[in-house]
Write a structure and sequence with these properties.
The chain has five domains: 123 residues, no CATH class; 214 residues, Rossmann fold (3-Layer(aba) Sandwich), CATH 3.40.50; 102 residues, Immunoglobulin-like, CATH 2.60.40; 250 residues, Class I glutamine amidotransferase (GATase) domain (Rossmann fold, 3-Layer(aba) Sandwich), CATH 3.40.50.880; 103 residues, Immunoglobulin-like (Sandwich), CATH 2.60.40. By secondary structure, the protein is of the alpha/beta class. Helix 2 packs antiparallel against helix 3, helix 8 packs parallel to helix 9 and helix 9 runs parallel beside helix 17. The two termini are 41 Å apart.
Length: 823
């Protein structure tokens, strides 16, 4: 009876709920006592007026009409008090299901489907076989004959299973309660609409949103956000479709799974993709361009490994197709893995050979996970011939001489002007006097120390100038007694990359311009110095910069007035200036066909402090290699490429620098030099959409760097991962091969589904993990849950029922007045 009355009062009771209480609340503009006074006063007035009616009426009729009028006034006053009926309901309703789908870029990866199981899983998803097909002992499928998509992307599989008419996954999930759809990448967003009872799935709405374009994945955070949402009750279960790759979450997945278990929200996880996928890639191969026969060659190989759980990795080096070094190491995950392989090139039939050195890495026993990196090298049978001329055995000479004598790539001779005559006459490695012009030209590199102008006569200086012009290498180490002050005003000064000051000096005293109590300084690498192989004291650029900052200080340097045109500074003084420019302490340029290196300091031997020859020998070995080898090989490179960063990363623009020289080895003067960028190979396992439509070769321009004659730069977007080659024909053919790598934990980085992590999260939460062959059981595995709820309804009683009562009262009074002959 009461429920009928409440319905009459327009109360709409929720489904599965019962009325707990009802009350009337007055929300008018004046209090109840004032309303009572108004009603009493109005009623008294009504009775008074009806008592004064002159028409002959019975007392009963007068009282009845007065009561009707008073009741009408009472109803009007009550409506002005705005009575509101407040009803409280309580009940239970089914908790919904949350369908959460990974929309990150990793879902666009195409897994190689190699095993029979993985092929059958694609067949189930694409409705080529029944959802409950047993894949355990089934024979392998021919993908083409079966009509399967070749290596489908993970997002394609999600589309396929949600659209599969035999699975009817969405329809079956809706049987447990309301189905809410969410997409997640960097954050959780509610996007998907799955229709109503009449239309089980609005399939036309969600595919356009499920594109796999989110740049980051916060898997654990997305689940946690769903548990904390304020837009409804907790779901009965979370159905998660993902590959398990998480690179942006603040919370660990296990911790979130434990919270799901506490709240009784199990995770039912469909793992998309293949677990039999991973990344094995060589990042860098550090080896000189020229190798020497019978010399031990150490090749550091840096690689990265992800997604491989067990097994052995086979690392190998081949030269000219011949295996020269090989090593097996256990599989381990990491971004910066390193192994050094050593081999000794043996003499072949030819004394000089241009060959291809290939470093390869592969998972032993498979052909799927492997990578290789190639580099052109030259094998030569002759050592670099060096002539080192020094005035007296200063510290730089004392430490550099044994380094040169121990280097198996070097054949060194020494002239010590003020040395012991008996030692100088003892034969190799000493020479008693300056060689003739013809013998001088047999050397590849000349190192000049603090030698006086009396010894280096104008004729000898002219021979040295011609030696450099014809391609010989020259290193000049400044000294406090003679050089380069003695040659600052001579024709030989133009050979140096710096214009030096002709400072005054006295025999046996330091240069007058230097402080009596000098302060130590650490030279600073210039941008060109950071790119120079000569100054690489470590394989990694970051480590190299750290080492240069921590080297022992230098106490003396020779001042310069300016760089010559075409010269570049490699090391600068941290505080000294030449005008408004930093003061160089290491600079280089080409003079004719030969390269000249000038050290405005004589204390590189200090770099041996606490580390022995580690940095000192490496620095001088690289100087000899770069300055002396071109003469040995019979040619100097007129095109020299250098990467701005040792590792080029996808999505991070970077530059390639080039030093270009004309036929006379003068810096090229053109404003722009055409070049070509060739796309060689894309990163495996990344969707071909990333490279379709791109030209495999495109023209680029090397732009001249202002204020740096002969230096050019091209800025590249690095918007496609893979191998590239930059080629130019001006001023001579040259090629730079490099690879654009994916940053660590990038969405497109090849890697398999994180099956173990997803299985563990499902187990902890109280749910289950599914592959395609298990999905037909997923809806039945979800346990329906009910959520208690309460709901309050408020109905203003100024409604049609009140109006009906008002009309009945006023009509009854009107009829009585008519029958009583009252107007």
């Amino acid at each position: 009876m009461m429920n009928w009355l409440y319905r009459l009062l327009f109360l709409d009771a929720p489904a599965n709920a019962s009325l707990q209480s009802a009350d009337i609340s007055l929300r008018g503009l004046f209090p109840l006592w004032a309303a009572a006074l108004i009603v009493v006063a109005a009623g008294a007035g009504v009775f008074f007026l009806y008592s004064r009616e002159r028409t002959h009426l019975s007392s009963i009729r007068r009282v009845l009409m007065a009561l009707l009028r008073t009741t009408l006034l009472l109803l009007l006053v009550l409506l002005l008090l705005r009575p509101v009926l407040v009803a409280d309901y309580a009940g239970e309703r089914p908790r919904g299901i949350a369908l959460v789908i990974d929309n990150s870029q990793s879902m666009k990866q195409r897994d190689q489907r190699l095993s029979a199981r993985d092929l059958l899983r694609v067949a189930i998803a694409e409705n080529h076989v029944a959802p409950d097909f047993a894949i355990g002992d089934s024979p392998a499928l021919d993908p083409a004959a079966a009509g399967l998509t070749t290596n489908p992307s993970r997002v394609h599989l999600v589309h396929a299973v949600l659209s599969n008419p035999r699975l009817q996954l969405i329809h079956n999930l809706r049987r447990h309660g309301p189905l809410r759809g969410y997409l997640f990448g960097q954050r959780l967003e509610r996007h998907l609409t799955f229709g109503n009872d009449e239309k089980p799935a609005a399939m036309e709405e969600w595919p356009a949103r499920l594109t796999g374009d989110e740049p980051r994945t916060a898997l654990a955070d997305a689940i946690n956000d769903l548990l904390l949402r304020k837009d409804g009750d907790l779901p009965a279960a979370i159905v998660l479709m993902t590959d398990g790759r998480d690179n942006a979450s603040r919370l660990p997945l296990k911790e979130v799974a434990a919270e799901c278990a506490r709240l009784q929200v199990p995770l039912h996880i469909y793992g998309t993709g293949s677990a039999e996928a991973g990344l094995l890639q060589i990042k860098d191969l550090s080896t000189p361009d020229t190798l020497f026969f019978e010399d031990s060659v150490s090749v550091p190989i840096r690689w990265r490994c992800h997604g491989l759980r067990e097994g052995k990795l086979e690392i190998a080096i081949t030269v000219g197709g011949k295996l020269v070094a090989q090593r097996e190491v256990p599989v381990r995950e990491g971004e910066e893995l390193r192994e050094v392989l050593t081999f000794v090139p043996q003499k072949g039939s030819a004394s000089e050979e241009n060959l291809e050195l290939t470093a390869s890495i592969k998972l032993k026993g498979t052909s799927t996970f492997q990578d290789e990196l190639k580099k052109s090298v030259r094998l030569i049978d002759r050592r670099v011939r060096i002539l080192y001329i020094e005035n007296s055995p200063r510290w730089e000479y004392k430490f550099l001489q044994p380094v040169l004598l121990r280097d198996r790539r070097v054949e060194a001779a020494f002239i010590l002007v003020n040395g012991d005559p008996k030692a100088l006459q003892s034969g190799r490695p000493f020479l008693p006097d300056f060689p003739s012009r013809d013998k001088l030209f047999l050397y590849d590199l000349l190192i000049l120390g603090d030698v006086s102008r009396q010894y280096l006569t104008p004729e000898r200086l002219e021979w040295i100038r011609d030696f450099v012009k014809e391609g010989g290498g020259l290193v000049v180490i400044a000294g406090r007694q003679h050089a380069p002050a003695a040659f600052a005003d001579s024709p030989f000064a133009e050979v140096l990359p710096l214009e030096v000051l002709p400072l005054k000096f006295s025999e046996g005293s330091p240069l007058a311009s230097q402080e009596a109590r000098p302060q130590a300084f650490v030279p600073i690498l210039t941008p060109a110095g950071q790119r120079s192989e000569m100054l690489a004291l470590a394989d990694e650029p970051e480590e190299n910069l750290r080492i240069w900052k921590q080297l022992p200080g230098i106490y003396w340097h020779y001042p310069a007035s300016k760089l010559r045109p075409g010269a570049i500074a490699l090391l600068n003084h941290p505080t000294a200036k030449m005008g408004d420019q930093p003061m160089p302490v290491l600079a280089t340029h080409y003079y004719g066909k030969g390269q000249v290196l000038f050290l405005a300091m004589e204390e590189t031997w200090r770099w041996r402090f606490n580390v022995g020859n580690r940095y000192f020998a490496r620095f001088w070995g690289q100087v000899i290699y770069q300055i002396g080898l071109p003469h040995l090989l019979g040619n100097s490179k007129r095109v020299q490429f250098a990467l701005e960063h040792a590792e080029v990363l996808f999505g991070r623009p970077s530059s390639i620098y080039a030093r270009l020289f004309d036929a006379e080895f003068h810096p090229l003067k053109e404003e722009r030099v055409p070049a070509r960028l060739d796309f060689v190979d894309h990163v495996s396992n990344v969707t071909p959409d990333a490279v379709h439509g791109e030209e495999r070769s495109r023209k680029v321009m090397l732009e001249a760097v202002p204020g740096q004659p002969g230096e050019y730069r091209v800025l590249l977007a690095n918007d496609i991962p893979g191998r590239f080659e930059l080629k130019t024909e001006t001023p001579e053919p040259a090629t730079l091969a490099y690879r654009v790598s994916l940053p660590p934990n990038h969405e497109l980085e090849p890697g398999g589904m994180a099956e173990e992590e997803l299985r563990e999260a499902a187990r902890i939460s109280g749910g289950q993990f599914y592959r395609e062959e298990d999905l037909h059981r997923l809806p039945d595995n979800i346990q329906p849950q009910a959520a208690a709820f309460s709901q309050r309804q408020e109905v203003v009683l100024w409604n049609p029922l009140a109006m009906l009562v008002f009309v009945v009262l006023i009509t009854a009074e009107w009829i009585l007045r008519k029958f009583s002959n009252l107007s």
